[in-house]
UniProtKB/TrEMBL annotation:
PROSITE patterns: D_2_HYDROXYACID_DH_1, D_2_HYDROXYACID_DH_2, D_2_HYDROXYACID_DH_3. One of its GO terms (molecular function) is phosphoglycerate dehydrogenase activity. GO terms for biological process: L-serine biosynthetic process. Belongs to the D-isomer specific 2-hydroxyacid dehydrogenase family. This is Phosphoglycerate dehydrogenase. Residues 18-331 form the D-isomer specific 2-hydroxyacid dehydrogenase catalytic domain.
Length: 417
């Protein structure tokens, strides 16, 4: 990325600076380093004051789930044009602020689906056999060989899946292959895999399932969607598993359901508030609950999943920075662009407010150039424009860029050569 000061051909682009936090996978680091970027790599999330300092002059930042890019943090960034979330969610980023300040956001929504699904299968079996309670007793020197009705096989049991997207559907296939009967509920129309059965309603699923597993996003509609009422609808002796988002389950209500004996067990991998760093800093009403598996948000934290996420997000960042391509962006229109094909071509990337008349103003500024290609698309209030210009020694690219930047509707303009 560079801004030529006068005439064509444009000078070589300066090395872009990338800040990578929270020990993102080395597969991603290698892709970004091979692209020629200057990399700063941090194993952990940074406190807000340090983050504000580090983010000021970088062109892209990569993070996982603990780094919070609030509006207050992002306003410190002077050169930032890309944010890579090396994880499924983007709740840690203020997407609206990023979009309206020329920062596109990428994530990897599907790369860890298999890892999460496998963890849930492991938890279903462990809960059915009370493995974690027996393990704790053994480590405390207690031999408690439970025999009979307290433990079960999972074959023939009904698994109710709430949210039948990539993770839910993969879980469906794995569970069915182990002999479980699968019923699912989703607010969107979903095609069932195998012999999975769509539930008539959430209430129908809760009342009939032996195991209930949650795989929904964090939205206002899903906040505390499983509370005391829903837990009361579940079969006595059923099990609840949450590997989606911490706000989806009312934790005190779940704790009460376990301690009263209405639920036979639970597995929780995500929590409404999670510690910023590792150590003795976790507390929850679920601690000490019978037959309850608590894990520190590790559903997608396998080596395989993190490697795949590293490849997907780093590749998206490289393509965006080098070509302007926005496929996979969560807050910008998705536009597929190839690299600039000629040394006589300059690509102008422009983000502007999606209001009438902007293209007319831009094209007036480009009127003296041969426009080889021009693409414009919008998403909500944001419009994204890419224009390939054939330049000659008389072309004053800097004057064109300055003219676009001076438009009141302009958000961000950069040049790719």
């Amino acid at each position: 990325m560079t801004t030529p000061s006068a005439t064509a051909p444009a000078p070589a682009a300066p090395k872009l600076k990338i800040l990578l936090l929270e020990g993102v996978s080395q597969t991603g680091v290698e892709i970004l380093r091979d692209a020629g970027y200057e990399i700063e790599y941090q194993l952990k999330a940074l406190p807000e004051d340090q983050l504000k300092l580090k983010i000021r002059d970088v062109h892209a930042v990569g993070l996982r789930s603990k780094t919070m890019l609030t509006a207050e943090v992002l306003k410190e960034a002077k050169n930032l044009v890309a944010i890579g979330c090396f994880c499924i969610g983007t709740n840690q980023v203020n997407l609206e602020y990023a979009a309206t300040h020329g920062m596109t956001v990428f994530n990897s929504p599907f790369s860890n689906s298999r890892s999460v699904a496998e963890l849930v299968i492991a938890e279903i079996i462990a809960l059915a056999r009370q493995v974690t309670d027996r393990n704790t007793e053994m480590h405390n020197g207690v031999w408690n060989r439970v025999v009979g009705s307290a433990t079960h096989e999972i074959k023939g049991k009904q698994l109710g899946i709430i949210g039948y997207g990539h993770i839910g559907s993969q879980l469906s296939v794995l569970a069915e292959s182990m002999g479980m009967v699968v019923k699912f509920f989703d607010v969107n129309q979903r095609f069932p895999l195998g012999t999975a059965i769509p539930a008539k309603s959430l209430e129908d699923l809760l009342k009939t399932s032996d195991f209930v597993s949650l795989h929904v996003p964090e939205t206002p509609e899903t906040k505390n969607m499983i509370n005391a009422k829903e837990i009361g609808l579940m079969k006595k002796g059923a099990y609840l598993i949450n590997a989606s988002r911490g706000t989806v389950v009312d934790i005190p209500a779940l704790s009460q359901g376990l301690k009263s004996g209405h639920l036979a067990g639970a597995a929780v991998d995500v929590f409404p508030v999670e510690p910023f760093a590792n150590g003795k800093n976790f507390d929850s009403p679920l601690k000490g609950s019978p037959n309850t598996i608590l894990s520190p948000h590790i559903g997608g934290s396998t080596e395989e999943a993190q490697s795949a996420i590293g490849v997907e997000v780093a590749t998206a960042l490289v393509k965006f920075l080098s070509t302007g391509m926005t496929l996979g962006s969560v807050n910008y229109p998705e536009i597929d662009l190839r690299p600039v094909q000629s040394k006589k071509t300059v690509r102008i990337i422009n983000v502007h407010h999606n209001v009438p008349g902007v293209l007319k103003q831009v094209n007036k500024l480009l009127s003296d150039c041969n426009i080889e290609k021009q693409i414009c698309d919008s998403k909500g209030s944001i419009a994204y424009l890419a224009a390939d210009l054939e330049i000659n020694p008389d072309t004053n690219i800097q004057s064109i860029v300055n003219g676009i930047r001076a438009m009141p509707e302009n958000i961000m303009t950069r040049i790719i050569v």
